[in-house]
Amino acid sequence: MITVEESFAVACNQQFDDEPLSIDLDTRDHQIRVNAALVESSHTVLTHFGRSVGSCWGDFYCTNNRIRGRLYATSNAILFYTNLLGFERRLCLLLKEVEDIRLFKTTSISIRTVDNETYIFKSFNNREQVLHLIKALQSLEQKQLRREHHSEPPLRSTLNHPEPPEEALQPSNTKTAPRIPSASVLRQTISSTLPASFGSPPPPICHSNRRRSVSDSIVRIPGINPLHSTEQDTPLPIGSIECQKNKSNAETWEAAKAHPGLQEKGIEAVEVSCSLEQFYEFFLADNAEHSLDRYQRDHVKDKDVQCAGWDADCDGAWSRTITFSHPVKTTLGVGPSAAKTSRKQRIRRFPKLGIVLENWTNVGGVPAADSFFVQDRWIIESLDSERVRLSTWYKIQFTKRTVLKTFIQKSIHKETKQWLSGYVKMLKNVFQENEPTRTIPAAMAYTSISVFESAAINVLKDIKYSFRVLMLVAVFIVGFGLVAVIVQLASMHRIVLELQAQLNLLILEQ
């Protein structure tokens, strides 16, 4: 088990080429596992900002001045880099020049420098986590600056030995090495600065002259428990980069394919005559020729179609959100005119092996819309350089009870089969020069969304049909009741007339 102080000490020992710390082999193996995911992004910071910015402990997706990019939190600076559409922008804020860092409004972080310049960063996945990390690094930077200001001699310590006595800190006649923070000092500062619930920033794998490493996701904080904890580390998810680095690419792909939980089969082993890379570029990539937003707009005739670009997640996957409004025909003239649909997509690519596409769809503006959502999953597997195979599964997830459950299940299952059949016909036109009998792409994501729209529309139709039947029954009951009342009144009227006639006869006899 590696604590926060051990993790930070190992990082500093590697970065500053200090004397080796007393840690066991398991600790080093764990550090290697954690740091395996940091190599790719480390190269980005090294290329664009150089070595002077210090070690990087996390990077985050965000926006600055409405420009999307990534924010890197290093030991000496706060960095922002973007190269959107070929327009490169770099921003470097040194921690020693940062005067104030705070949360701003509901989604942003405000950073003010000593020159009274304010920078706003927004659209974080977890801005509180970002704020804690930056403030912790700023506190460490300030303490180091104070030590350098007072010209204190370097301290020596290890994890397994007490700090040296006061006499050992006096300057000697020998030539002093460059100032290096000791493990004990760092242990004290990090334990007093970082909250116990925040965990430890992962130390990078560095050589003696290398002083920087960054994560390749929103943040790289492994399941390291607080100080002196006896709990076990949280297992890494299958899709995480750390887990993938411990396995071969083929093993990770097999584990991803074997993901259970979805019961209904949509498509089973349908082949497409194209390579895996062509498949992605043609159907799934941003601005693809046969993209989802184009299909929804041109073929399904949906309105207000919005398809965001793919954004990197914390475990190496990519995600995006698609929203649109599907017109709903109302026969009775009542009810919503459109069904608002939101779909979350998450994709993981395994080079030369396959693609995993997961989807979560929520339909709004229809009866019982808040009681269910639909989860579906696509496995696109590369067979060779010219063929891929697609298999899909889906499941209707109910979040609460509803009397329309039977209607919802029936409609979604029915519309799923119908929509897949229609989409295959469209794909035959796309791949008409290839094998027309067995072609379907991963853009089957189109299917599911429109399937769920149609399912919602069918639910409305079933409800309208039931309403009509109830109305007919009610009219029949009311009509029958009116006839019975009229018959009863006529009978009573006849009886009254007979009684009146008998009464007149009695009067005449008297």
From TrEMBL:
Report the leader peptide range.
Answer: none
Q: Does the keyword Membrane apply?
A: yes
Start-end of Basic and acidic residues biased regions: 144-153
TM region positions:
469-490
Its localization reads:
Membrane
Q: Where is this region: Disordered?
A: 144-180, 193-212
Output the InterPro entries linked to this UniProt entry. GRAM (IPR004182), PH-like_dom_sf (IPR011993), VASt (IPR031968)
Q: What is this protein called?
A: VASt domain-containing protein
